[in-house]
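> forwarded from #structure-qc
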């Protein structure tokens, strides 16, 4: 059987385990919002800019948050089947589970994952080729290993051309992990509210994924890469847990709200995309914007008002508010042809955003 749906091209392992509903990409077992679709260039630029502005490297934070998120996604997939959860990492089943985890990682766009050697409890060597972000992709693999072994495993990384080699030291705990900080990075359940006016997305009749996903993106599961058809740029199905955790941890470490920093970074990235594509023409009304956000798992646009050049938005089930706010800000600036000011609030995962032209913001 092909790894992707013959009708729409979406990886079967994703379509079978997740549903697009209430503005989110939801794990069928746990009901948690697991993923959103995000541009690789945005991801890498965001953390490069944030690190530079904050004056601190973010790789360790990204690794720890991404590691937690990866483990959480796998636990969500297994959580509805307690017996299965007990068996999948035991002989003789763990090799099948191991292959399934590799397939899943490649389906969400992590890169090409090759297990060169793994004897559970003895040794492990993994090659990661063309990762979208070395630290974050390393974290995805580490999280998988953490679940397999039941604790944070010791893993060393050696960079090589085009990626890295990861060496597992089974039986050894990662002593660099500080239990308090590691626990703090674990997100609470990100269960989207069931909305009264849920958007009915057209579905592929063969696999049930939104038909728009197969039209907008192409999936190369052998290389572990997802490409957006619009401008042939690489995207990923990134863990909502990891981005949510990184934002919370930065605010905890710095002691103040850093939403503005992330909003401005996203605004700049999305404005560049709007300038070189025709995407902005599809986002001129509420339906267009609502479809755009929902298909990418960024939330459900519940309200939109315009008064001249002023606009206001209400987006529910938002777990990475600054990213959505930054995109809406960039869209308004693109349409108005000038810089805008904004007022932003996020309460109980509901984003409220007001935008007006004329100020630097």
């Amino acid at each position: 059987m092909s790894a992707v749906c013959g009708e729409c091209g979406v990886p079967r392992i994703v379509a079978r385990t997740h549903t697009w509903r209430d503005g989110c990409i939801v794990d069928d077992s746990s009901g948690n919002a697991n993923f959103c679709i995000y541009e690789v260039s945005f991801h890498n630029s965001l953390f490069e800019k944030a690190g530079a502005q904050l004056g601190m490297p973010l790789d360790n934070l990204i690794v720890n948050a991404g590691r937690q998120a990866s483990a959480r996604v796998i636990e969500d997939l297994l959580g509805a089947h307690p017996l299965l959860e007990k068996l999948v990492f035991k002989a003789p089943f763990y090799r099948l589970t191991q292959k399934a985890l590799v397939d899943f990682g490649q389906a969400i766009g992590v890169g090409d994952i090759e297990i060169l050697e793994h004897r559970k409890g003895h040794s492990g060597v993994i090659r990661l080729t063309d990762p979208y972000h070395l630290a974050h992709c390393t974290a995805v693999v580490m999280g998988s290993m953490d679940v397999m072994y039941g604790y944070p495993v010791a893993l060393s990384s050696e960079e090589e051309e085009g990626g890295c080699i990861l060496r597992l030291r089974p039986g050894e705990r990662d002593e660099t992990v500080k239990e308090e900080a590691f626990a703090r990075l674990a997100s609470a359940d990100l269960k989207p509210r069931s909305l009264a006016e849920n958007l009915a997305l057209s579905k592929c009749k063969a696999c049930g994924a939104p038909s728009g996903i197969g039209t907008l993106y192409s999936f190369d599961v052998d290389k572990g890469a997802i490409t957006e058809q619009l401008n042939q740029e690489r995207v990923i199905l990134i863990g909502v847990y990891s981005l949510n955790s990184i934002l919370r941890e930065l605010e905890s470490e710095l002691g103040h709200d850093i939403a503005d920093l992330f909003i401005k970074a996203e605004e700049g990235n999305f404005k560049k995309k709007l300038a070189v594509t025709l995407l902005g023409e599809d986002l001129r009304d509420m339906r267009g914007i609502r479809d755009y956000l929902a298909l990418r798992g960024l939330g459900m646009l519940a309200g939109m008002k315009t008064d001249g050049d002023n606009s206001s938005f209400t987006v529910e089930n938002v777990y990475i508010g600054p990213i959505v706010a930054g995109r809406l800000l960039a869209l308004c600036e693109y349409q108005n042809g000038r810089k805008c000011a904004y007022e932003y609030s996020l309460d109980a995962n509901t984003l409220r955003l007001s935008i007006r032209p004329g100020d630097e913001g």
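QC bot note: The CA atoms of residues 77 and 195 lie 23 Å apart. DSSP finds 13 helices and 14 strands in the chain.
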